[in-house]
Amino acid sequence: MSTIINDEEGVEFQRENWEMIRSHVSPIISNLTMDNLLDSYKQLFQVNIVVGGNIVCQNVVNFILKKQNKGQIPALAALITLLNSDVPEIGETLIKELMLTFVKQFNHRDYISCDNILQCLSILFLYDVAHEIIILQILLLLLEKNYLQFVISVLKTCGWKLALVSRKTHNMIWEKLRYILQTQDLSKTVRESLEELFEIRQTDYKNGSQGLLVLDSGDYTVNTHSYIVNDEDRANIKLGDFKECTRFDELTKVFDALRQKIWINNESNEDTTEHLQINDMTSTNDVEFKKKIYLVLKSSLSGDEAAHKLLRLKVANNLKKTVVDIIIKSSLQESTFSKFYSILSERVITFHRSWQIAYNETFEKNYTEDIEDFETEQLRILGKLWGHLISYEFLPMKCLTIIKLTEEDSCPQGRIFIKFLFQELVNELGLNELQTRLASIKLEGMFPLEGDADHIRYSINFFTAIGLGVLTEKMRSQLTIVQEIEDAQEEEERLKREEELQELRKKARESQPSQGPKIHESRLFLQGDARGDARSRPPPSSAGRKRARSRTPPRGPRNNRDRSRTPPARRQRQRSRTPPRR
Question: What is the pLDDT of residues 135-178, one digit of tens each?
């Protein structure tokens, strides 16, 4: 087809080619699903979409505006991302048209179309096709007009990405929503949706942006587009109409080269897939991979350079945790904490969410499995690195939930690590900001407010010992309450045991026969030995008792006993015959 186009000239031929492109593109877009995404992408390159880029854009906009296509918008956004990688002009035109169409439909109160457009733009922002300026313009407009349902929808989809790239503006929007929730009289539906959104944010948007196709940025070339809406701009309703192209031959050559490149890449990917199916990751390959990562780190002069080199390697998701582990262990080889590794970690975490997941898993492994293997100086470096990443919110504060601060559940190395970690948090944030962040998340493992009084007391003593007793104020006030509850429970158990003992004694007395010797109560549960020890025998009854003869030998005759109480006469002292001394 391209050869014919190069050989022919004239407006009429371009018009015929335009109609052919339109008839080819329209059914591909209309029948797009997540299952046939890659096939649809390849089919689009059977016609010259470089020349007919506006036709693709017009079909995409029409597809989005249809109510019944809402479920296919994630697939459409993924297709736009792939096309934008090869033909950035399509992505740029689409971002502009979607923004202007949103303003138009919003003014016409076509809220179904607005919802579809917002969903598409939010996903394109996640795929780095749309700049954050696009999302911020929309959010500020919606907040100004008080259309909270749209704001909630956008933040659910791409709030986590907005927090990464524009933390200050993200927090400002949330403060506005908090103010609205506390001061305005909202409908029940909106209030419940807002409360649900705040719960999602507390989990770091864990439940947001579900059901999306995961496109690793290594799978496509990132071309990000921005557009600021002007009052004079209007959506181009004739975007798909034929227009003579003065650069027809030039664009045709560009398309031919692009299509050839795509075909070569497809063949290469197929060969790689076949190769990977028979290639196993042996221990030798694993060592070589780790060595390669280590050499990248040691050959870099700055954290930014190291991050750039690592990201160019396009590491697979299943190997990112290995890379992070190498980064952490390399930092521990330094004599002191180096900002090289903190800057490197910042760059890779903000590049893609999969890196943040890898860092979270490595933090858990460091504390739960490896902590006893580290020396004191290594624990200091480790605490500073993780404390830095948590304080600047590259890692969420909730990663600390794995720590349980008790004597049984922590080891000396773990407590030293916690000490250095919190000292770094205080240095970076200050005590007031740290207290605010700790109050926003439930860390029962380190700051228990209920349950075992010993756990609360141990935590109070630990943070007081490391000079952070101010963090234990709530626990101190709660400890008294918990202690009173435990004392009351112990007293209740003691009384219950006494009642059970009294009941047993009562039953034992009632079980004795009515006649016969009575058993003394204090000796009720004693058992006599085989010899018949007198201590175990019950006392004989007084009725019919005969006096037993004493076996003690009798004393002398009574008549001979002197009953006088007069003391015997004192024996007079004989005078000494020794002459007195002179």
Answer: 999 999 999 888 899 999 999 888 888 888 888 888 899 989 98
* DSSP conformation class of 231: T
| Number of separate domains in the chain | 2
In a domain, 467, yes or no: no
DSSP conformation class of 334: S
If asked whether residues 86 and 206 sit together in one domain, one would say yes
Range of the domain at 305: 280-446
Asked whether residue 238 is domain-assigned, the answer is yes
Global pTM reads 0.49
How far is 32 from 75, CA to CA, in rounded Å? Answer: 7
Long-range residue pairs from 106-114, CB within 8 A, at least 24 positions apart, any chain: 106/141, 111/150, 112/67, 113/64, 113/65, 113/67, 114/150
3-state SS class at 413: helix
Quote the distance between the C-alpha of residue 250 and its chain's center. Answer: 52
Between 191 and 551, the more confident residue is 191
pLDDT in tens, 427-462: 999 999 999 898 888 888 888 887 778 888 899 999
Between the alpha carbon of residue 401 and those of residues 144, 346, 362, 368, 430, the distances in Å are: 38, 22, 14, 12, 21
In which residue are the tokens 């992505």 written? Answer: 91
Best CA proximity match to 214, nearest among 88, 308, 81: 81
Where b means 16+ CB within 10 Å and e means fewer, 441-461 reads: eebebbbbeeeebebbbbbbe
The CA distance from 254 to 269, in Å, is: 22
* Cα of 454 vs its chain's centroid, Å: 27
Residue tagged 């009084």 (tokens): 453
